[in-house]
From TrEMBL:
Coiled coil ranges: none
Name of protein: Ribosomal RNA small subunit methyltransferase A
Keyword Hydrolase: no
Reactions the enzyme catalyzes: adenosine(1518)/adenosine(1519) in 16S rRNA + 4 S-adenosyl-L-methionine = N(6)-dimethyladenosine(1518)/N(6)-dimethyladenosine(1519) in 16S rRNA + 4 S-adenosyl-L-homocysteine + 4 H(+)
Upper lineage: Bacteria, Pseudomonadati, Pseudomonadota, Alphaproteobacteria, Hyphomicrobiales
Natural source organism: Devosia oryzisoli
Amino acid sequence: MSQIDNLPPLREVIATHGLRAKKELGQNFLFDLNLTARIARVGGSLEGVRVIEVGPGPGGLTRALLAEGAREVIAIERDARALPALAEISAAYPGRLTVVSGDAMDVDYPSLVDGPTRIVANLPYNIGTQLLTGWLTLEPWPPAFESFTLMFQREVAERIVARPGDDAYGRLGVLAGWRSDARIAFNVGRQAFVPPPNVTSAVVNIVPKPVEAGLPVRLVEQVTKAAFGQRRKMVRQSLKSLGVPVEGLLAAAGLKGDERAEDLPIEAFLAMARALPALRATSGPS
């Protein structure tokens, strides 16, 4: 493995600072700096870009982001054991690394935007989907972030990029497909991590795109929650949990009612979400 900077190899860093990966923190460390550099390049050149990284751990991806030319990296790390290793990186890249010690779930991400800003992270498995959902539901939309380059379990990555008719198509696929262009950049085998997880991982690149004004994301989420809550049933049945006349929803989306949620195009969910407030107003309290 070639070095990308003059800092010690990651195995040495981990040994020096006693950074045994903790399962309860969803930690799986990447040792291959060539691989972390590949992840850093997925979203294009980092020259002049501020990058927000979640869960840097010993800093393999952090180092790659800086070596690839990021103007600044803001690294959010909950594990206090990793802070000394990150401090060494900060010293090697003066003025370009800011470490935020705290829980990634509590961060106000829009407040960290300063000029061109991206989120790039090898997300902890135990909070990855929750973090992504939070980012995809930010208002206003599109957000100030240029893109998200994130590593997930391959199963989650497939749900993000799934399209109607795919086995993995569900609420996350509708949300991501509505608000972004998402693609799987490449897979990462379990042997690349220490300790190896039980699953293959994948790096996903997500680029926000404009959506129509005036359609609150909460309405779309309510419709998809109802539709996919009983995904094997026809939508005429599954949509009843919304407490409004189902025929009005079906008419708004041009549906017959015998379809199943996994086969509906994203526009059908949006059409039903648009119709939901008026149907609630006319049907009274549910």
